Xylose transport system permease protein XylH (Pseudonocardia zijingensis), 416 residues
Amino acid sequence: MTTTGPAPSAEKAAEGATTAAALHTGTSDIRALLTRNLRQSGIYVAFVAIVALFAILTDGVLLSPINITNIVLQYSYILVLAIGMVIVIIAGHIDLSVGSVVALTGAVSAVMVIQQGMPWWVGIVAALAVGLVVGAWHGFWVAYVGIPAFIVTLAGMLLFRGLTLRVLDNISLSPFPAEYQLVANGFLNGLLGGDGFDAFTLLIGAIAVVGYGVSGFRTRIARITYQQPVESFPLFVARVVLVGLVVMYFAWQLAHARGLPVVLIILAVLVMAYGVITRRTVFGRQVYAIGGNLSAAMLSGVKVRTVNFWIFVNMGLLSAVAGIIYSSRINGAQPAAGNMFELDAIAAAFIGGAAVTGGVGTVVGAMVGGLIMAVMSNGMQLMGIDQSIQSVVKGLVLLVAVAFDIYNKRRAGASR
């Protein structure tokens, strides 16, 4: 009995159709991979472009060792606030009081240390305690009474600014002891020597690059295990190498200035800790769930009130940390300290990829958004641009970032 198989032309047609389907599927996967986090990916490109632009406009002064160090010192407290603010925004809230809390915690620390003559560390502990109390105050009204966070923190902005004036009796206090000043103005250098540079700073930079590469590789393996789309291995290697070069250049510049700033170590520890909290803990997943879909989160058994309460306690704690850093930086406490800090922190979170409606955002993205604001401010200052123009530029950048977020949501909705 003779059997006849499909004609050669039919076989080729079937193979061609299979190949075309595979190519289409592969292309769709690549397109989905590239566009899934378009805004989060684009922010890094925007950051590099802004740095390059201002480096050219300032004739390289922006990237000089001394200026890079100054950027770290001058904007570190905004970056600390941005860490807490992005978590608040992910949960679908906002906090307008952080600038006033920065002022209040710095004032309490100054009264304890400068006026009362207590040890410098007592001032730090007192500031942290005040920050926790403030956060608990906000958390109670938002989580358990049900008043919107916008109203609660707006009231807190006025309340804690007034308390700052009372604590300081409308006068400035200075100076802090040398140990307290080291929080924001201290450097670690000379630990490993170096001929004209600080080898310890380069070592820390190298460790950071290795840690980034190992963490990225482990994340990649985990996604492959769960059959999630990942970038090609060459592209992954290129990304790690690019980030490594940027970090090592940054470390090289710091090593040729004054070494590793103490405040940068504090900031790095906070970024790593909160990166783990938001991505790898139950609390972090619950924050995203609340911001993404409150009803679904409640039906899933998330204790929404408890999570919201601790979100604001955390914001109060980080506001206190920022208050300590700021008061250490200016070597004193002032009634007007922290003015408009809340807007800078909110802008950093939104520019860094947080969504207006909540449920979206990362700590690293907020850091990049804060650095974009810092580079723009520093670059325009170096160029001698008027403060009014600087405010206009910052406002336009924030508006474009939020508009881009809305555009992405509409496009995603239209494609469904």
Q: What stands out?
A: Residues 17-26 have pLDDT under 50 and may be disordered.
